C-alpha cells in the first residue's frame, strides 16, 4: 500500500508508549464502541506511486481531447503562457494556506494585492475581493450585496448563461429571495419589458446581466444600468475578463458590482474547474463584498506590509451576521490570473481580445457561406449562434471525426460557436468545408 | 519589496501570440473601453524573478511544520500534481458529450464511491468548491427535505458555541435562524441544553465530531437521536474527518449529511487559500435533492449523467473543482483500505504525543486523550507573565514554525489549537515541543521580547487596525 506516514512501526510504538497508550486501539478507546467501525473499509488495497499514476493515466486516456476547439459557453480555450504554469507550480504558493500569519505570508498577500489591483483595473472598480469559487457563485453572491429591508427581489436577464441562472436560483432558494427572469428580444435583454417590470416592483433590489451575453451579443449595458438605477435598484454586470481589455468597463457602464469568471486568464478548461470567480465594486459597496480582501499597511518599523483586512465582514468574526460564509476560495487561480495578466500586459490582453472577436467574425462569414444562418443580427464578441439545418448532432459528429470540437448544441438544430486566438484560419476553413459538404449532402 | 507595477518599463513585454491570420475586427465604438488599462510591463525574466521573490516571502507545508489547527496541513504528495496535469484531464471541455468524457466521469464515480464508504453515506455530490460551500449545500438538502414534506415551520439550525464560524454563516445563507447551544465543561454537547433547544421548529443540527476542541463526543448517538426524535436532521462538518477515517463513520454516528474537505483530509494542496473541494454526502433519503449531475453506470456499460428528481439545482457551474478531485482520487488510490485508517491513526498519535510532552507546562483546555488536534489555553501564562497566545504564536515564527490556529474555538480563553497531522516525523514534533517549551521559559524570563516577536521575519508585526481604518486595497497609478 501507499503511505505518507514517515514514522516507522517501531517509532509509532515508542510514541504510543510515551503518550501513555498500550496500542492504537487503547488510544481510540475514547470513541464509544458502538460507533467504532469493526471491519476494514471496503476499498481496494493501496497502490504504489507507479501503479497509481498508471491507473490515473489510463483513466485520463478514456477522455477524448480535441485538437481544435470551437466551444465556449463559460469555458474558453485561450493560450496559456509558459510562465503561468511555472510560477503557479511553486510549492511555496501551492502548499500554503490562507495568509493568516502576515509576517511569513507577505509573498502570498502581496500577490493577492496585485491581483486585486489588476481586477480593479480591468473592471474600473475601486475594490476587488481575493476571489470567489467561480463566475456563477460570484453572480449569486452579488444578490445579498444589493438587498436591503425595502429591496428584496432580484432580477436576472434571461440572456445570462443558463448555468449561472441555475446557480442563482439555488442560492435564492436558500436565502428565500424571489428571483425573476427578464425576457429577451432578438438575443438581448428586452429593455421595454425590464423597465415595466421594475416600475411595477418597488421591492426590486438588482438586475444581474451578462456582457457579452450568453449568445455572445453585446448588450446596451449603459442603457440597462440607467433603467435599473431609475427604479432604485442596483446594477450587476457579469463580464468576460478578456473582453474587458477592449470593452467599456462595468464602471463606465455604471455598474454597482462587477462579477465574472476568470478562467480565460490562464486556466485550462479542465472539465470545468478549478476556475476563478471575481467580484469588484465601487468603494461605497466595499463593506458588503464577501470573501477575503488584502490591504496595505505598515509593520512596527514602518516597512510596507500587507494583511488580510476588513475582516469584520467575515464569518469567523460575524458568524451568522457575516456577509457570506466563504472561507477557502480559489487563491491559486487568482495567482494564475495575475501571472497571466502580467505576462500578457495590456497590449497582449487587447491582442487576445481582438483576435478572438476577429476570428469569430471570420468564422461566422465562413459558416454563412457554407449554408448556416446566424440566429441574431446583433454585434457579437467571440461567440455567436447559427441554425444547423442538417442537425446539430450530425454536424458535431462530422467535426469530431476530424478532431474538432464544434460549437455547443443548444437545440437539435441550433449551435453556439466560439473562437479564441487559438483558432487558425486554416482550421476555420476546414470547419466551413465540412459544414458545406454536409449541407449539400456530399462528403467533405 | 516592489510591487509588480513598480518594476519593468513601458514597452517591455513577452513574445506570446502570433500575428492575426484573419482580417481584424474591432469592438464597436459604442462598446469600446475609454479608461486606460494599466497592467504590468515586464520582460519574462523580471516576471519570473518577481514571483520567485514572492515565493521566498511565503511559508508552505513544503517549507516547514504547519500545525494550523482545524486546517489539516498535511504533506501534499507530488504524484497528485502529475495526475492533475494529464492532458486527458486538463484538455477536456466541461460541456463535451458523455461519450467523450468517460474518463472524467470515472474519476467522479470512483471518488464518490470511495467517499461514501469512508463517510458511511449513500451518495455524494462533488460540486461544492470548499468546506463552507459544502455546508451551504448540505443545509440546502436539509431545507429541501423539510420543504418537500410541507414541514415549513422548521426554520432553526442548532449550532454549538464551539462551532466553526462558517456553520452559523452557512445556516444564515440558507435562511435559517441560528440557535447556539453552550458546550459542557468537557467541551462536548450539553445534552440537556440540546433537549431544551429542539422542537417542531428544528430543521437540524450542525456538528463537528471530533469537535473543535479536538475531542470525540462520546454522546454522539444520543445527540443525533435527540435531534431525529424532534424531527430534525443532523449535519456533519467534516473539517475534522482526518481523525477518524476507517475508525468511525459519520453515517454510523447518525448523521444524515456531511461535507468533506478534500484539501484537508485528502491531501490536495491548499493553494494559499484554495482551490479546495467540499463534496457533500448524504443518506439515501436525501439523494433525490442533490445538486448537479449524478454519475450512474459503470466501466462496462459506460457512465451516464442523471439529474435527481427533486434536485436543488446547482451550487456551482459544471462539475466542481475537477482537478482537485483528480488529486484526491490519486491519493485515495495510493492509500487504499490499509492506508486510510493508518493516516488517521497516526494523525491522532502525533497529536497525543505532542500533547503529553507539553501538558506539564502548558494548560490543556481539556486534559484527556485528544483526537487529531488539541487546544491549549494560554490564559494562566498570560495571567502570570502578560504573554498572550498571540505573542507565543508570533514567537514560533522565529523558529520557522507556522503558528497554530489562534483564538479558536471561542469557548477557550487564549486558545492555541495544534494539529500536527500524520505526515510529520517524530523529530519535527520534538523540535516543535522544544520550541514551545523554550517560548514558555522566555515568557517568564523576558516577556518583552515576545511582545515584539517575531524578530527574524521579512516584516515585523503589521498594523492591522490601521489597515482596516485607512483602507488601501489596490495600487494607484498617478497618471
UniProtKB/TrEMBL annotation, chain A:
Instruction: Give the residue range of the signal peptide.
Output: none
Biological processes per GO annotation: glycine decarboxylation via glycine cleavage system; nucleoside metabolic process
What HAMAP family does this protein's entry cite? GcvPA (MF_00712)
What's the subunit arrangement here?
A: The glycine cleavage system is composed of four proteins: P, T, L and H. In this organism, the P 'protein' is a heterodimer of two subunits.
Transmembrane residues, as ranges?
none
Reactions this protein catalyses? N(6)-[(R)-lipoyl]-L-lysyl-[glycine-cleavage complex H protein] + glycine + H(+) = N(6)-[(R)-S(8)-aminomethyldihydrolipoyl]-L-lysyl-[glycine-cleavage complex H protein] + CO2
Keyword annotations of the record: Oxidoreductase
Q: Which domain of life is it from?
A: Bacteria
Q: Which gene encodes it?
A: gcvPA
Q: Describe the location of the Glycine cleavage system P-protein N-terminal domain by residue ranges.
A: 4-434
The protein in question is named Probable glycine dehydrogenase (decarboxylating) subunit 1
Q: Which family does it belong to?
A: Belongs to the GcvP family. N-terminal subunit subfamily.
Amino acid at each position: 500500500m501507499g503511505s505518507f506516514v514517515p514514522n516507522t512501526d517501531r517509532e509509532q510504538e515508542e510514541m504510543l508508549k510515551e503518550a501513555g497508550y498500550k496500542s492504537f486501539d487503547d488510544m481510540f478507546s475514547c470513541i464509544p464502541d458502538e460507533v467504532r467501525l469493526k471491519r476494514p473499509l471496503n476499498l481496494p488495497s493501496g497502490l504504489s506511486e507507479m501503479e497509481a499514476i498508471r491507473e490515473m493515466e489510463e483513466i485520463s486516456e478514456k477522455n477524448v481531447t480535441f485538437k481544435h476547439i470551437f466551444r465556449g459557453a463559460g469555458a474558453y480555450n485561450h493560450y496559456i503562457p509558459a510562465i503561468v504554469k511555472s510560477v503557479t507550480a511553486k510549492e511555496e504558493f501551492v502548499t500554503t494556506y490562507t495568509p493568516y500569519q502576515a509576517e511569513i505570508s507577505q509573498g502570498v498577500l502581496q500577490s493577492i494585492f496585485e491581483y486585486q489591483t489588476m481586477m480593479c483595473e480591468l473592471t474600473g472598480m475601486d475594490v476587488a475581493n481575493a476571489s470567489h469559487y467561480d463566475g456563477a457563485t460570484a453572480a449569486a453572491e452579488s444578490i445579498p450585496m444589493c438587498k436591503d429591508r425595502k429591496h428584496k427581489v432580484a432580477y436576472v436577464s434571461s440572456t445570462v448563461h443558463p448555468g449561472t441562472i441555475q446557480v442563482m436560483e439555488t442560492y435564492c432558494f436558500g436565502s428565500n429571495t424571489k428571483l425573476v427572469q427578464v425576457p429577451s428580444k432578438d438575443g438581448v435583454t428586452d429593455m421595454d419589458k425590464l423597465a415595466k417590470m421594475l416600475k411595477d416592483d418597488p421591492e426590486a433590489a438588482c438586475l444581474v446581466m451578462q456582457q457579452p451575453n450568453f449568445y455572445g451579443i453585446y448588450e446596451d449595458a449603459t442603457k440597462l444600468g440607467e433603467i435599473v438605477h431609475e427604479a432604485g435598484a442596483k446594477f450587476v454586470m457579469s463580464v468576460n475578463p478578456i473582453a474587458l481589455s477592449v470593452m467599456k468597463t462595468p464602471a463606465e457602464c455604471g455598474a454597482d458590482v462587477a462579477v465574472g469568471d476568470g478562467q480565460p486568464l490562464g486556466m485550462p478548461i479542465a472539465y470545468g474547474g478549478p476556475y476563478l470567480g471575481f467580484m469588484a465594486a465601487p468603494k461605497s459597496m466595499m463593506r458588503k463584498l464577501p470573501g477575503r480582501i488584502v490591504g496595505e499597511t505598515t509593520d512596527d518599523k514602518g516597512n510596507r506590509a500587507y494583511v488580510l483586512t476588513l475582516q469584520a465582514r467575515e464569518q469567523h468574526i460575524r458568524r451568522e451576521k457575516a456577509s457570506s460564509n466563504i472561507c477557502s476560495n480559489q487563491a491559486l487561480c487568482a495567482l494564475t490570473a495575475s501571472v497571466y495578466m502580467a505576462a500578457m500586459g495590456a497590449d497582449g490582453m487587447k491582442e487576445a481580445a481582438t483576435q478572438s472577436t476577429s476570428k469569430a467574425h471570420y468564422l461566422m462569414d465562413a459558416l454563412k457561406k457554407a449554408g448556416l444562418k446566424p440566429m441574431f443580427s446583433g454585434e457579437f464578441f467571440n461567440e455567436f449562434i447559427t441554425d444547423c439545418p442538417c442537425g446539430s448532432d450530425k454536424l458535431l459528429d462530422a467535426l469530431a471525426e476530424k478532431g474538432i470540437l464544434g460549437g455547443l448544441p443548444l437545440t437539435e438544430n441550433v449551435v453556439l460557436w466560439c473562437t479564441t486566438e487559438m483558432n487558425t484560419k486554416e482550421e476555420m476553413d476546414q470547419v466551413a468545408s465540412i459544414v458545406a459538404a454536409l449541407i449539400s449532402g456530399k462528403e467533405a | 519589496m516592489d510591487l509588480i507595477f513598480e518594476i519593468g518599463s513601458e514597452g517591455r513585454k513577452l513574445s506570446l501570440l502570433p500575428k492575426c491570420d484573419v482580417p481584424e475586427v474591432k469592438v464597436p465604438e459604442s462598446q469600446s473601453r475609454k479608461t486606460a488599462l494599466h497592467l504590468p510591463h515586464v520582460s519574462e525574466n523580471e516576471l519570473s524573478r518577481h514571483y520567485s521573490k514572492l515565493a521566498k516571502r511565503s511559508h508552505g507545508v513544503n517549507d516547514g511544520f504547519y500545525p494550523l489547527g482545524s486546517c489539516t496541513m498535511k504533506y501534499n504528495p507530488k504524484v497528485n500534481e502529475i495526475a492533475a496535469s494529464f492532458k486527458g484531464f486538463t484538455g477536456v471541455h466541461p460541456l463535451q458529450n458523455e461519450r467523450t468524457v468517460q474518463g472524467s466521469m470515472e474519476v467522479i464515480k470512483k471518488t464518490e464511491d470511495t467517499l461514501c464508504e469512508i463517510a458511511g453515506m449513500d451518495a455524494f455530490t462533488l460540486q461544492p468548491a470548499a468546506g463552507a460551500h459544502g455546508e451551504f449545500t448540505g443545509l440546502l438538502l436539509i431545507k429541501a427535505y423539510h420543504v418537500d414534506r410541507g414541514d415549513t415551520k422548521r426554520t432553526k439550525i442548532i449550532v454549538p458555541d464551539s462551532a466553526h464560524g462558517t456553520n452559523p454563516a452557512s445556516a444564515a445563507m440558507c435562511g435559517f435562524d441560528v440557535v447556539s447551544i453552550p458546550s459542557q465543561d468537557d467541551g462536548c454537547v450539553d445534552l440537556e441544553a440540546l433537549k431544551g433547544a429542539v422542537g417542531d421548529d428544528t430543521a437540524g443540527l450542525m456538528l463537528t465530531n471530533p469537535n473543535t476542541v479536538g475531542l470525540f463526543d462520546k454522546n454522539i448517538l444520543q445527540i443525533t437521536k435527540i435531534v431525529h426524535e424532534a424531527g430534525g436532521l443532523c449535519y456533519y462538518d467534516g473539517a475534522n474527518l482526518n481523525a477518524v477515517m476507517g475508525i468511525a463513520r459519520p453515517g454510523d454516528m447518525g448523521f444524515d449529511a456531511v461535507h468533506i474537505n478534500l484539501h484537508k483530509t485528502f491531501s490536495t494542496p491548499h493553494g494559499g487559500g484554495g482551490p479546495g473541494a467540499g463534496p457533500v454526502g448524504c443518506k439515501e433519503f436525501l439523494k433525490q435533492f442533490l445538486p448537479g449531475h449524478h454519475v450512474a453506470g459503470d466501466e462496462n456499460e459506460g457512465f451516464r449523467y442523471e439529474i435527481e428528481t427533486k434536485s436543488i439545482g446547482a451550487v456551482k457551474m459544471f462539475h466542481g473543482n475537477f482537478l482537485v478531485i483528480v488529486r484526491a482520487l490519486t491519493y485515495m488510490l495510493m492509500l487504499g483500505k490499509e492506508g486510510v485508517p493508518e493516516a488517521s491513526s497516526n494523525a491522532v498519535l502525533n497529536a497525543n504525543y505532542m500533547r503529553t510532552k507539553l501538558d506539564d507546562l502548558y494548560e490543556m483546555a481539556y486534559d484527556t486523550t485528544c483526537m487529531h488536534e488539541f487546544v491549549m489555553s494560554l490564559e494562566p501564562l498570560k495571567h502570570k507573565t502578560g504573554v498572550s497566545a498571540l505573542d507565543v504564536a508570533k514567537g514560533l515564527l522565529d523558529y520557522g514554525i507556522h503558528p497554530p490556529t489562534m483564538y479558536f474555538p471561542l469557548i477557550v480563553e487564549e486558545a492555541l489549537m495544534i494539529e500536527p497531522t500524520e505526515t510529520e516525523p517524530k523529530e519535527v514534533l520534538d523540535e516543535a515541543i522544544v520550541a514551545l517549551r523554550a517560548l514558555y521559559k522566555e515568557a517568564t524570563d523576558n516577556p518583552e521580547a515576545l511582545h515584539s516577536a517575531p524578530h527574524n521575519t521579512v516584516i515585523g508585526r503589521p498594523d492591522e487596525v490601521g489597515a482596516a481604518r485607512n483602507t488601501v486595497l489596490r495600487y494607484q497609478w498617478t497618471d
